[in-house]
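Worked example

This section walks through a single chain of length 316. The input is the sequence exactly as stored; nothing has been trimmed or padded.
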Amino acid sequence: MKKVKPNIVSYKDKKVKLFLIFLALSFFFWFLSKLSKEYTTTISFKTEFINLAKEKTIFTDKNLTLNITLKSSGFDLLKNTFKKRIKIDLLDVKETNGKIVLNPNDQITKIQEQLGNNIQIIHIEPEILKLDFGTLNTKKIKVIPNLSLNYKSGYYLSEPLKIKPDSIAISGPKEIIDTIRNIYTKELKLTDLDNDFNQTVLLKKNGNNKIKYNTEKIHISGKVEKNTEGEITLPIYIINTKGKNVKTFEKNIKAKYKVSLKNYDKVKASDFKIICDYNRTKKDSLDYLIPEIQKKSEYVTEVEIHPKKIEFLILK
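Given that input, the structure is written out below as tokens.
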């Protein structure tokens, strides 16, 4: 007759499982006994300011940290370690010259309600909160890209760069935002370009934390194609003559430009306008006119005109 061996492994497994259960229960009851005892500890909370007038704002960092020393049972202290924020009421706080100075310890009763009645507040640090406070003003400013673009030989932009957004909204104290006219992006360097590109660039902020931006990223894209050079003859228009009969020795001017091969035949003289401002000549006491490009074809880039100076006569 074949003998059946006892299942030793199964018996050992049961003993191990029982041991682990008793160990877990022992740890659980030990943990409960510890939590039932009274402790004093310090917990950090982020601030949340409430009851602020609608037309007002806080320019200081709103996520200030309060270190609150508490005394209570381990159960109550454990619950409050998961609380992320403490509300600070600004309803009755006075503003002086755009600043609020308050002591969080003066709001212990309101803070107590948020933490629970079983919690005893020993102390709150810092004792003084200083906040920059005022009316929020908003305005739009132009975005200026800081670009360094290097192209492969024969390649260039086939149309103007696209910048989205090309202007942004900034908010802050009026006396600060009134001094800001535009904002630059951080530098973008691209080399050996022979294809279209689409890049995201961060704004270069002025470092004042009172200024808020409605976006921090700008998208810059460009179409890059094989280019060629073109030349066109254009008439000269003289402006601001104030009734004087100004005549130039040269009636036309030549403009050289870069254009993509596919757009070469789309460039027309009517897409350009070259002007000479007689007022500028008088103001700078010049004996010549300076030609300027007032309008150019949307298909061309790097327009260069020649000559740079236009001689003239005033006929009586």
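What to look for: DSSP finds five helices and 25 strands in the chain.
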